[in-house]
Amino acid sequence: NDVKRIASRMTLTGGGKVTTTFLMSLPMFAELPLEELRRMSNCLESKLFTDGEVIIQEGDTEADRFFIIESGHVSVKKTVDGKITVVTTMTEGQTFGERALLVNEPRAATCQAQGNVKCLMLIRKDFQEILGHLICTIGKLGAFLGAYKSKFGPN
What phi, psi does 94 have (nearest 5°)? Predict the structure, then answer.
């Protein structure tokens, strides 16, 4: 089971710093150079959220953190036509909160703890320095491939 495999790699070193092994086990970070992973692990903070606690709120304009779920489940909710709808549930090893940090937009959804949830957090400054350029490059590549497919077909 992938979730159990990822969870088993979530080991902390002395001082509460996340090991690079855990970060490398996550697809989003697997290709980052070891130096960047070490730098990121030194910047991460850990926080426990209790059942029902809102981690990020849709529409929040004060977005200042990126999150990696270390343990537990997070429900993602969006307001659609005035009704709150659960879009998905995320679990160990999944990430959220990057969009608002990259494009300076309000939070696109509400993320709420289902049971106790432990998250690793990276503040805006560190996120942009370490991951911002990588995610922007991936986004541009995705947009290019999408335009290519619409112009030339799926093959």
Answer: -90, 160
Instruction: Kindly state the tokens that stand for 18.
Output: 């996340």
CA–chain centroid gap for 103, Å, is 15
Closest CA to 43 of 73, 20, 21, 63: 20
Mean pLDDT of all residues in 77-106: 89
* Tokens 């159990």 -> residue: 4
Instruction: Give residue 135's Cα distance to chain centre.
Output: 11
pTM for this predicted structure: 0.74
DSSP string, 59-127: T-S---EEEEEEEEEEEEEEEETTEEEEEEEE-TT-EE-HHHHHH----SSEEEEEEEEEEEEEEHHHH
